[in-house]
């Protein structure tokens, strides 16, 4: 419980980095060999992945790098949040470079407007353009401490909406501004926005009022952006993962949700692994998904099929 409070406090009390500080904290590797373009593209795509230090974001950043994208890894902290050994051994951007890919890291609070603006600016100054934004960073206060709505502290609601929903609005706003200003990708497309929502963006979750509302906002905004910017050839889709074995998942299982129960709810092989989710953002940013926009894609081992 003490540790939980500590995690909660760290999201509220740390100030966002200013632009010069942010700039100084970016690390890059210009000497990396040129990998392949992202599948279906003739030019390497530049991707921002938020929440890249742990869990799904880490797996998505690696999947993009393997497909040849230049990746801006973005997180509150360069260090993985969890005690998952593979995640803490080496930071995501470093791992990508070790494997021959191109990646930079930027310390960013995704709920902060100026920090998100700077993130896009710094990515473009490093990689010259921005093609893909994955709004992945998110929190679940209620995974640690599930409560019915009448007992939910207002601070939990505000923090959850800030990190899970406001961040998607901000990231999308500044990414689209850049995508509209730059030359289109050689494919003729201007950009790909991929939001990591949740099954709880579409269904209810007991004891999770703030989380459900925040993910409902993400799923709804996905449709709105898709309609608004279809004329500009900017696609916007969301992935709605089922329970996936990351730091958030281990907090949920520690707070009383049984692993066996969770297993039963995912008919196809039980709760997922980050790699099970990470393939979908690659497809969504490729020519294989050329006519796909405004979709909320449930990648959940069958959880919501019941
Ligand atoms: N794991 C699941 O079961 C599951 C299921 C459905 C949806 N999701 C969603 O997937 C996304 C990733 O979750 P995960 O399971 O990988 O969690 P995680 O806790 O393993 O990783 C989340 C990452 O986001 C970062 N982050 C948190 N607040 C931030 C902030 N203000 N600014 C920048 N970075 C911040 C954390 O430092 C961490 O590295 C979240 O949006 C989550 O809601 C997860």
Automatic annotation (TrEMBL):
One of its GO terms (biological process) is secondary metabolite biosynthetic process. The keyword NADP applies. Keywords: NADP. Belongs to the short-chain dehydrogenases/reductases (SDR) family. Pfam families: adh_short_C2. GO terms for molecular function: oxidoreductase activity, acting on the CH-OH group of donors, NAD or NADP as acceptor. This is Putative short-chain dehydrogenase. InterPro entries: NAD(P)-bd_dom_sf, Sc_DH/Rdtase_CS, SDR_fam. CDD domains: SDR_c (cd05233). It comes from the Eukaryota. The keyword NADP applies.
């Amino acid at each position: 419980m003490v540790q939980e409070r500590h995690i909660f406090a760290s999201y509220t009390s740390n100030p966002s980095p200013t632009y010069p500080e942010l700039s100084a904290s970016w690390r890059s590797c210009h000497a990396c060999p040129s990998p392949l373009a992202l599948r279906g593209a003739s030019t390497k795509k530049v991707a921002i992945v938020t929440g890249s230090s742990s869990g799904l974001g880490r797996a998505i950043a690696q999947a993009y790098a393997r497909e040849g994208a230049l990746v801006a890894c973005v997180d509150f902290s360069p260090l993985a949040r969890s005690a998952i050994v593979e995640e803490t051994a080496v930071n995501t951007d470093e791992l990508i470079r070790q494997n021959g890919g191109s990646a930079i890291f930027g310390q960013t609070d995704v709920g902060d407007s100026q920090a998100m603006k700077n993130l896009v600016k710094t990515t473009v100054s490093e990689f010259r353009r921005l093609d893909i934004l994955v709004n992945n960073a998110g929190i679940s206060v209620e995974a640690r401490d599930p409560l019915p709505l009448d007992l939910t502290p207002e601070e939990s609601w505000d923090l959850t909406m800030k990190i899970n929903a406001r961040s998607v609005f901000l990231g999308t706003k500044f990414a689209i501004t850049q995508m509209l200003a730059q030359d289109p990708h050689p494919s003729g497309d201007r950009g790909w926005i991929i939001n990591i929502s949740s099954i709880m963006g579409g269904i209810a979750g007991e004891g999770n009022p703030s989380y459900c509302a925040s993910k409902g906002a993400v799923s709804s905004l996905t449709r709105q952006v898709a309609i608004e910017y279809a004329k500009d050839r900017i696609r916007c889709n969301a992935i709605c993962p089922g329970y996936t074995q990351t730091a958030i998942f281990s907090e949920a299982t520690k707070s009383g949700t049984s692993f066996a129960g969770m297993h039963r709810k995912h008919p196809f092989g039980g709760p997922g692994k980050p790699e099970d989710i990470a393939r979908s953002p690659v497809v969504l940013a490729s020519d294989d998904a050329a006519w796909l926009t405004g979709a909320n894609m449930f990648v959940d081992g069958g959880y919501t099929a019941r």
